[in-house]
Amino acid sequence: MRRRILWLACALAVACAAMFATTALQARGENINYADLNKIKAEGMQRSQVMELCSWLSDVYTPRLTGSPTAQKAADWAVAKMKEWGLSNVAIEPWGNRNGFDRGWTNDKFYMQVTSPERFPVPGTPSGWTPGTNGLVSGEAVLVTATTEEDLAAYKGKLKGKWVLMMAAPDVAAFWDAPAKRYKPEELDTLELQPAPQLEFGVTPPGQRAGAAAAQAAPAGQRAAAPVAQAAPAGQRAAAPAAQAAPAGQRAAAPAAAAAQGQRAGMPPAAAQPGPGGRGGFATARNDFLRTEGALGTITTIPRGHGLYTISGNRAADPATTLPAISIAAEQYGRIARTLAKKIPVTIEADIKNTFYPNPAVFNVVGEIPGTDKADEIVLLGAHIDTWHAATGAADNGVGVAAMMEALRILKATGVKLRRTVRVGLWEGEEQGLLGSREYVASHLATRQAVPGAPAAGGGGGRGGPQGPLETKPEYDKFSVYFNIDNGTGALRGIYLQGNDAVAPIFREWMEPFRALGMTTLTIRNTGGTDHQSFDGVGLPGFQFIQDEIEYNVVTHHTNMDTYERLQPNDVVKMATISAGFAYLAANRDEKLPRKPANAPGQGGRRGQ
Q1: Residues of the chain falling short of pLDDT 70
Q2: For residue 47, how far is the Cα from the chain centroid?
Q3: Calpha distance 605→536 (Å, rounded)
Q4: Strands 137-143 and 163-165
């Protein structure tokens, strides 16, 4: 009898434990179909086409500067490929607002060489939307280190037919450590911690030195601005080391191309950016002075060295009032500048052809797999298809486009059931301010009313500054989630939650089937500088994956080395597979993903909160 009572007690305990476990699992609300996920993983990991897509985007249809003919060719290719896979509603969607793209632009020819005192080639790239040379031209180089209009006066009558070097030769640090980085376990652990509270602008947090570099002060998970430049000699830009790794979880910008001139990291010198989009003030005055004096063009570099240079451009620049502006590597720039310092003349010849295209097409590309019982609700995957033009844009962001296209191919090929419609969006104009994704949000989802006296934000917000009341469209309430890839070739390691605590337990369960692929980390922190902000800025769930750094900030971001060879195939295959899995899980939940409260941090500013 006693043994029977003991047996009954044990049985009751086991039953209660099982009931409690079942209740706990149900309370978490995630019904995961592992059979379907195994199909997705098998297709994605064993029959991947993603690197072939990367090759088309990195070798054939590139560079894809917004508004260029090659951007149109890439869009036509993407449309044809998605139709080949059997996707639905594949289309090129023109922007409702041209956002200042009155001219498209391409660089069709570049030749530059020092011809005396000794001959050597000078690899380089002209800044976007600057004019060419109208054939072969030759002239001496001159170093102009003026920082005020008064300084410029000393060069009056001395610049006609000259190539102007815009700063002193920078010091170039060695790559003391391997440039490629992966997250260490302790860095991922740190990333999961709640960040320290932010203080009002200008207040130094306890324990932090005033004047510390901005990249150090920014919380992990943000895309940091360039470090605050330390004082440099007149006309010489501060040489912020390029090879330093960004803090854990932080998307650092490219090293400042001209920190002493106060310009944003990765941008060409302010002199090449007059008027809208440029710095204005002295930069405009300097450009006007150099042009009036008859200079042939400007030459700049960055202190990174190792053959690297960055490129950018100003779509609003008027070719009639700007000069050819060339970026070159520090090795050639330094050789020229040091020779000039020895009072030895240096002659440079160049033949640069750039073509302008009036009123170019500006657009996004979309395609989808229709859902079943919740087909009017949308799960969206996206990446920006535009690039800069010094290289082929493989890591920024052909790899993101290829991964998200491959994710939809995987879902279509496996035939898994999708309750919601899964859509892909390929955005133009990200490099000019998240323009394509903002236009998509404005057209399909929501806009914000203008704030009197504030600059026009356009699109869906997510760029900082005053924000007016939200005006939603019918699709707003049917939108579930947006996932974005735009941090290079690195493996996906987790997700930035953008301050949305409610999705954490959901994503925690979703990551488990992909733990063996490296997905382990959630951070409440925000990351910025890319297209998920357009959705987050209007209160919709928009997320960027945490990715291994690899060489992104040191070697590839906006540089002449952003090519297919910098991609890591195993990482890219995992990237597409995980994206497909998360789209599948989001599409088949009973409910859409929760949205954070209207006043939660993370909506708005480019760098997050």
Answers
A1: 1-29, 196-280, 450-467, 599-609
A2: 28
A3: 10
A4: parallel
d(CA 356, CA 278): 19
CA dist., res. 222 & res. 211, Å (int): 19
Residue 254, SS3? Answer: coil
* Residue 322 half-sphere exposure toward CB, CA atoms < 13 A: 28
Ordered by start, the domain boundaries in the chain are 39-101+360-429+473-588, 105-172+260-356
Q: What's the gap between Cα 170 and its chain centre?
A: 26
Query: What's the angle, vertex CA 484, arms to CA 479 and CA 488, rounded to 5?
Result: 175
From residue 276, give the alpha-carbon distance in Å to each of 99, 100, 312, 461, 483.
12, 10, 14, 20, 32
pLDDT tens profile 472-498: 999 999 999 999 999 999 999 999 999
Select from 191, 195, 173, 193 the least CA-distant residue to 183: 191
Which amino acid makes up residue 364? Answer: N
Task: Give the integer Cα–Cα distance in Å for 89 and 459.
Answer: 22
**Assigned CATH topology for domain 39-101+360-429+473-588:** Aminopeptidase (3.40.630)
Burial classification of residue 24, based on how many CB atoms lie within 10 Å of its CB (0-12 exposed, 13-18 middle, 19 or more buried): exposed
Tokens found for residue 422: 């899964």
Q: Which amino acid is at 586?
A: A
DSSP 310: B
Topology classification of domain 105-172+260-356: Glucose Oxidase; domain 1 (3.50.30)
Q: What is d(CA 379, CA 421) in angstroms, rounded to the nearest whole number?
A: 6
Alpha-carbon distances, residue 586 vs 59, 342, 482, 546, 566 (angstroms): 33, 65, 10, 18, 31
Q: What is the pLDDT of residues 354-392, one digit of tens each?
A: 999 999 999 999 999 999 999 999 999 999 999 999 999
Whether 295 and 159 have beta carbons less than 8 Å apart is answered as: yes
